[in-house]
Each structure stands twice: as structure tokens, then as C-alpha cells.
Amino acid sequence: MLKKIVVTAFLGSLSLFAGEKLTGAGATFPAPVYYDWAYNYKKATSHKVNYQSIGSGGGIEQISKRTVDFGASDEPLDMAKLDKEKLLQFPAVIGSIVIVHNIDGIKDEELKLSNSNIADIFLGKITKWNDPKILADNPKLNLPDEKITVVRRSDGSGTTYNFSYFLSAVSSEWKSKVGTGKSLDWPIGIGGKGNEGVTNFVKQTPNSVGYVENAYKLSNKLSGATIQTASGKWVTAREENFKSAAANANWDSNNHFYQILALQKGDTSYPIVAATFILLPREKVETNLLVVDFYNYSFENGDQSASKLGYVPLPTETKNLIKSYWKQNNLTQNNLTK
């Protein structure tokens, strides 16, 4: 059974010799797999990793202030931001954002929501589940004459960044009125903190809709919508479709792996796939060795648990590219895990 590490807050960076502990903070998107990896890493090495699931915005802020050993963000930082904050960056795992709903009698994968209709729901233009635009794609479903309750994030969120990137790409109105970002001026909806908060609101609120990372959808047994690929084909939120999208990633270590994975080509490519990234302070050599040791161990031993939780492990060639990046930045000397 997959176990969960207790999340604890920690202020102040830890040195390599301070009880061999690490603390990280940031994205809620990968938190379930980081908890599991940390649990198994501690069993294998006795080294403890505490991860605080506070959202990508908080993770970027804390690593920029050097109050944690590593930050985590679902929004990749570009070269200018990395240089400004003197950070290194590499991907850790790939996940997907699922449109989840709580409609009585409508099961997982039964509801079809076109990409344009998703944008119109979150714009507040489609307000009822039996709107003619939704019925046109779901002629056999008994959709209720009920108001749609939109649930979105209240905090700075990489999940929101990737979801809003997708919405900006499929809706010119969304792009012009709302745009892309970790924090948005939402036109509608109630806010939940973290993927956890959105998940709980959707579970508790009849006729609601929200967006969460697939691991939260699976562990909470939520119903997800069937949506559209970049080419307009209907696609379900399943592992094979996530992998199809992830396979098209074109990683480049020279730009610190900056990559947006939404709307990849292919008739089976799920359209809202995202990598999540680790941020390291360039000057913290000793602590960075421990962080890299943790992720190196997880890359070698954590694929099965990542898949079980609903994530897509990085391909071997991507992991090898990351390991070369570590070497280029002097992050692999005297690693503790053998």
C-alpha cells in the first residue's frame, strides 16, 4: 500500500550535515508522488525529506528567499527568471489536469466537454448543465437543468498556469479577457486552496466542475470529463493518452528544460499534460547534492509508484539528460545513495 509522509513546514535551509534532512515546498500537483518517494527514500537511506504542499507560487517564493532546500513548480521558469533568482531547474515527473464534475447519475468519462465549452464554462458564459452547447455533444445523457458551480484555485498555482495556458490556446476570448498565469482574475467560481481544496469542493458540491491533477481525481474517485485533443478528437483521461502527449516533449538542458506540454500533436494525446519542476539555489552545493540524491534514487526506484498514483514517469532518455545536467552543474559528486 502506498503511504503518505506527514507534511511539515520548515523555515531555514538545512545543511548537508544537519541530521541529513531536506525540506521542500511548492506545487500541490506532484505532492502525492513526492510523499511516496520520500517515504521509500527514508526507508532505504534513513535520510528524511519533508515536502510542504503550498502551491507553485509559494514554492517559487520560498526557494527564491532560500527558506527551503528546494522549490517545486508546475510553471517552468524561463532563463531570465532563473538567472535573476540564481536557480537551477529540472523536471521530476509528468502529470495531467483533469476536468472533474459532480453531476448525479453521470459517471466517469460519460460527459463530453469540448475545449471551447470548457472555456465558456470557466468564463461564465455556459451556466447550466443542460445548455444546448453541452447537450449537442451529449445527446444520450440526462443532464440536469441545474446551475453549474465552477470551482477553481484560490492560491498561486502551477496547475492553474497550465490549465489557463490550455484555455488561452483554445479560446481567443479567454486569452484576451483572462490570460495565462499562476493567479488569475477569475470571472466566476469559488476558490479552493491547492488541488486538495478544489477536490474537496467538487466532492461536496452537487453540479460542480473543477480542474485537478489526475492523482487527486483517482484517489478521491471523482468523475472526469472526456475532452478533445489538439486535433479535435475525443480523448479520455487515461494513462496511455497521457503517455502519448508526454512522448512529444522536446527537452533541452541548455534552457534548463523549459517546456510546456499542453496540446501536443497526435489524435490520442491528452491535451492538458504538464511536467512539474524542481528548483535549486545555485550556490547551495552541499544541500543540492542531497536533493539530487533523493531525485536520483526516485528516478531509479519510483516509476512504479508514480504510475500507480496516476502520473507518467519521465522516459529513460529524459532521465539521462537530467543526469548529464546534474554533472554539468557539479551536482553529482559524493552522492550518498549507492
Could you characterize the architecture of this molecule?
The chain is α/β, with parallel strands linked by helices and 338 residues long. The longest helix is centred in the last third of the chain and has 17 residues, at 285-301. The chain is built from 13 helices and eleven strands. α1 (31-45) links the parallel β1 and β2. The model is unreliable at 1-19 (pLDDT under 50). It folds into two domains: 21-95 and 249-261 and 275-328, D-Maltodextrin-Binding Protein, domain 2 (3-Layer(aba) Sandwich); 97-246, D-Maltodextrin-Binding Protein, domain 2 (3-Layer(aba) Sandwich). The strands form two sheets. Strands 1, 2, 3, 4, 5, 6, 7, 8 and 11 form a nine-stranded mixed beta sheet that branches. Strands 9-10 form a two-stranded antiparallel sheet. The protein has helices at 31-45, 56-65, 79-85, 115-123, 132-137, 158-170, 172-177, 194-204, 214-219, 239-246, 285-301, 303-308, 316-328, and strands at residues 21-26, 48-53, 70-73, 87-102, 149-153, 190-192, 208-213, 223-224, 227-228, 234-235, 273-281.
